[in-house]
Each structure stands twice: as structure tokens, then as C-alpha cells.
Amino acid sequence: MLTRSIKIKKKGGDGSFNGFLKDIPRSTVSVCVAGMKGMLFIFRFFCMALPPSFYPFSIFLFVFSFFSCSLVDMQRCRAFFFTYTGSPARFRGLGNEISASFVLTRTVDGGPMKIHCIPGYISALYLVEYPEQGKLLLLDSGFPSDLERVRFYVEEVMAAGKFTKQRLSEKLRLVVSTHSHIDHAGASKGYERCGIPVACPSGMEKCYSGVEGRISQIFEAYFSQLVAARLGRKVRESSFLFSKGLLGPYWQMPVGALRLDDGTPLPLGFHDWVAINCPGHTSHMVGLYHPFSRIFYVSDMFVAIRKGFFPPLPIEVDWAYNRTLHRLRGLPTRCALLPHGGIIDVEDRCGSWNALIDEIVLHYELKAKCNSRFEWARSIIAARSHLLQGEHFSPDVFPRGPLPVPPKGHEPPHLHIMDS
After folding, report:
1. What 3-state DSSP class applies to 264?
2. β-pairing, 259-260 with 198-201?
3. What pLDDT is stored for residue 346 in this prediction?
4. Rounded distance, CA 310 to CA 365, Å?
5. CB distance 81 to 4 below 8 Å
6. Which of 103, 146, 227, 356 has the greatest number of CB atoms lying within 10 Å of its CB?
7. What would the pLDDT profile of 276-291 be if each residue is shown by its tens digit?
8. pLDDT in tens, 282-335
9. Cα(first)–Cα(last) distance of the chain, in Å?
């Protein structure tokens, strides 16, 4: 088994706190963390009990105690250990066990291409490996702490048995963040600090601006912890590893010049992958398509559970989601890569890509009928959507260009899914 301790270094830090924590038993760390959080919780009630003349000061202390709890969680995350347990990918569990599934196929020039599916803290991470060229592409940066999962996998698991040390910053050439949510873009700033370029959809940099955006980030961060708990994660990993400070943003959007629009090939030598605008879940989300092998990274267009395929939560622009589903019917897809559901052999699971889309549409319509009594919640989501987009998303900006389909008569390469 491969094990390795995480060393998450904040900008300008030396990691010395890590070494201190590693020498302390895990149970002792847990007791100390619980004690510190308990003291901060009591301190918060003390702030609320101050007289009205102290309200400005008490509000400041309340906010300080709130973020202190988050910092305590972050320090706890620094003392975490990962272990590689092999294949297949297991999406439920404690979070410290790393597993993987694979897709094996070929590129346009006939070289091998291997896609590694690695369960992250909340969503699955997909590393695209080009063995002959010695380069990696990451589809979505993931939750803030997922950067260290990817580092462990690249530097320890993939490098096992090799004579030379493999560094993440040298092997990983490009990261793509398909939309702004924390489980897809949370580690973007961390990769940029490592010197790795991050590409993202045009307009994503406007998300979470202003006070409303900061509040939305806080709610989203805590909602993500509920999802992690449902997945069986026992150790809470911090949402604020790459926060800009008390006033936010609490996870930062990429600041580089690499922007993706509908039909844009990925830069930096990954032009065999093409971005497809998929508005609905958010106004700016993109999927990533590999026309030669007909593999589609769907981002959050839909999720897979035991009962089938369902639309995501939330859907911020309903009409755009419906149009996107209709548009994607014309996309020849053999294999779908789901952040929430893993690797899907389309023909084996549904018979065809259009049958899969039909199932999503059916569940979407049934859900709309069953949830009509929750119209108030839908109104809140719509209002939140308007705040996050920063501008009205109109039908005029919906993508209308042709999809990047393979040429007629083209026979796709052999595709092998290793998921058992």
C-alpha cells in the first residue's frame, strides 16, 4: 500500500505546522479540534449576549469566531493521510482511501490515451494521460483539498516503480474548470499557485461578485459538507483552503487568460478535446468532448444514482437546461464521464445516447410535477441564480453553432472501460 501525508502550504508558509501535527496521535488531534471548536461556539453566544452599545464589536467577534472554526478545520485537514487501495473507483467511504477506474482508448494520431477516474471529496476527478507524450490533463479542479488527492495520485501512485520522481507541476499541463461551483472550481487557485494553467468558461470570473456572492459561497460551502457527509466522509475537509481572507472570495475563480467558448478546442496541446456550452445548471457551464473517441465529460449536466439518470441540483435556468438537453441529442457519445456517477458505458447502460437523454427528460418532468408545491424554493434558486450570473441570461446568448461531431464514416477506436 502507498501512503503519504498531505502538506498543504498556504502562500508564504513553510509547512512547519504539518510536521508538528504528524507527530501527534490522530485521537489527540481530534480531541484538541473538538475542544477548540467548542470554545469558539461558546464564545459566539457570548458575543450575542453583549448589550446594544457593543453591537458593532459583537458582530465583528461573531464573524471572527465563525472563520476561526473554519481555520481549525483546515489545520485538521493538513494532518490527513491518503492510502491507495486499487481499482475500481469507490465513491463512498472515509475519504482517505484513493481508488481509481480507467478508460483506455487512442488519440487521433494513434497514440494511447488513458483516463483515470479518481473519487474526490465530493465529485469524481478525471485525469487524462497521454503516456507517449508524458503529459496530463485534468477535467475539473475539484474541491479545494482535492488538489492534494491529485498530487498524491500523480506523484506516488502513477510514479510507483519508476526511477525518477514525478512532480505534479511538471506532468500536469492544463486544468479545466467547467463551472464555478466549489466541487469543480474550488482548487483552481491552488493549481495556479503551483504554476499550472487553468482554463475556464468565459464569464465565470464574474461569479460570486459582491456581498451576495460571498453569502452564496458560504451557503454553498456548507451544503457541500452535507453532501460529503452523505458520501460517508468522516473527516471534514475545509472549503476555505484558498480563501482570499475574511471578506472573500472563499474560493477564487481562475485569473489566467485561457477562456473557453462553444466549440473552442482546449489550448496547450490538448486540441483533441472541444468545449461545448451547456447552460442550465449554471449560465456558463461547459462540457468537454473528445470527437475521435466519442467520449463526453458531461460536467453537471446530469447525475447517475442507482435509480437511473437525473438532472442536477440546482437548475438555475430551466429553459436553458431544456434547450441544452435537446441540443446534446445530436452528439455521438459512446462513453460519458460523470463527476457524480463515474464512468458510463452508454450502450451497455441505456442502449443509446438518445435513450439516456430521454430518461433524464422523463425524470426532469416528473420532478417538476411532484415539486410544484415547492415553488417558493424554486423562486429562491432563481433569485440566487440572478445574483450569481451578474447579468440576465437571455435566449440571444444561447449557443447555436454546430456540435463538434466526428466526420461521417469515421470508425471510432477501440474503447475499454476498466471498472471492476
Report:
1. coil
2. parallel
3. 96
4. 10
5. yes
6. 146
7. 999 999 989 999 999 9
8. 989 999 999 999 999 999 999 998 889 999 988 888 889 999 999 999 899 999
9. 19
Three-state secondary-structure class, residue 54:
helix
Residue 152 C-alpha cell reads as 498524491
Contacts of 179 (CB under 8 A, 6+ apart): 185, 201, 204, 281, 282, 284, 285, 286, 299, 300
The CA-CA-CA angle for residues 83, 85, 87, to 5°, reads 145
Residues written for the chain = 420
Residue at grid coordinates 449554471: 282
pLDDT digits (tens, 9 = 90+) for 353-391: 999 999 999 998 887 666 554 444 445 444 444 444 444
Contacts of 367 (CB under 8 A, 6+ apart): 310, 311
What is the residue extent of each domain of the chain?
Answer: 3-78, 87-418
The answer to whether the CB of 181 falls within 8 A of the CB of 217 is no
Q: Please, what CATH class does the domain formed by 87-418 belong to? A: alpha beta
C-alpha cell at 112: 494511447
Compute the average pLDDT of residues 124-131. 97
Query: What amino acid is encoded at 171 in this protein?
Result: K
The position carrying cell 460536467 is 299
The Cα 297–Cα 289 span in angstroms is 6
